[in-house]
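Colleagues,

For the teaching module next term, I've prepared a clean inverse folding example: a structure given as tokens, and then the sequence designed for it. I'd like students to try predicting residues themselves before seeing the answer, so please don't circulate the second half yet.
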């Protein structure tokens, strides 16, 4: 999730997940639908990232805290790129609480987010069902947005990206399948290899990256960039919501298929 047009996925280059060893019982309908909706928005609404279309989408569908809460003065602006700016009109566009989850700031941003969703979302959906998973995803996105809005109530930077909601998916995955193995690509200078690590390690690594990337925001020294508190809010939202949204019947079916991947507790 972005506060500006930075690409947080750049920080993930040293370690990047390729696939997990966690089969599914059911086809991930909701996960595929969410990915398709994000791609549709990127192509049709954001014009594949062309300057004007991208800037317009960020201003119209990105979440601007100061505009939604009415805390920023009318006419306050935020620079985007090549002389393009977002201007606060204080219409209180509450729909951006949802639309911002389907907007992205660049190719690396959308590809990285959707890849993480594809790797980890199918298994979480497998133990929830499509409808429950879709609602869960949206609620995690709202938790992410709420956390970021709380952290800077006067912000005029448009916040976009699916990573807050995906953070919730990853939090749920960590709780459900801590022992699942994730095949990961490691790049350290000229040295490149792949290694299988426990899911809880990979997801912990992701969370630490968000923390390190968000240190300027925690210290109050950043006015844009990575929306750190959105990642925290989404991740914790996923951990809190996974139990009530889990289907016991689907959980048992997944446990029968992949007993080594699931958490030891049965709730």
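(Answer key — instructors only)
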């Amino acid at each position: 999730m972005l506060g500006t047009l930075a690409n947080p996925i750049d920080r993930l280059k040293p370690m990047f997940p390729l696939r997990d060893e966690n089969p599914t019982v059911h086809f991930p309908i909701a996960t595929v639908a969410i990915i398709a909706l994000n791609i549709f928005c990127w192509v049709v609404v954001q014009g594949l990232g062309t300057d004007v279309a991208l800037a317009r989408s960020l201003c119209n569908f990105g979440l601007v805290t100061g505009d939604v809460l009415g805390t920023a003065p009318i006419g306050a602006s935020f620079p985007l790129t090549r002389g393009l700016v977002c201007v606060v009109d204080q219409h209180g566009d509450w729909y951006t609480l949802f639309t911002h989850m389907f907007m992205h700031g660049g190719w690396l941003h959308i590809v990285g987010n959707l890849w993480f969703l594809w790797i980890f979302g199918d298994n979480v959906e497998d133990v929830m069902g499509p409808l429950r998973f879709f609602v869960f995803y949206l609620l995690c996105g709202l938790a992410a947005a709420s956390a970021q809005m709380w952290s800077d109530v006067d912000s005029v930077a448009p916040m976009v990206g699916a990573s807050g909601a995906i953070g919730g998916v990853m939090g749920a995955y960590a709780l459900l399948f801590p022992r699942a193995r994730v095949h990961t690509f490691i790049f350290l200078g000229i040295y490149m290899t792949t290694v299988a690590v426990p899911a809880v390690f990979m997801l912990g690594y992701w969370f630490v990256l968000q923390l390190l990337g968000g240190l300027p925001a925690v210290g109050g020294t950043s006015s844009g960039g990575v929306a750190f508190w959105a990642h925290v809010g989404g991740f914790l939202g996923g951990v809190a919501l996974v139990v009530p949204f889990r289907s016991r019947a689907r959980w048992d079916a997944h446990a029968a298929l992949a007993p080594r991947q699931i958490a030891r507790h049965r709730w």
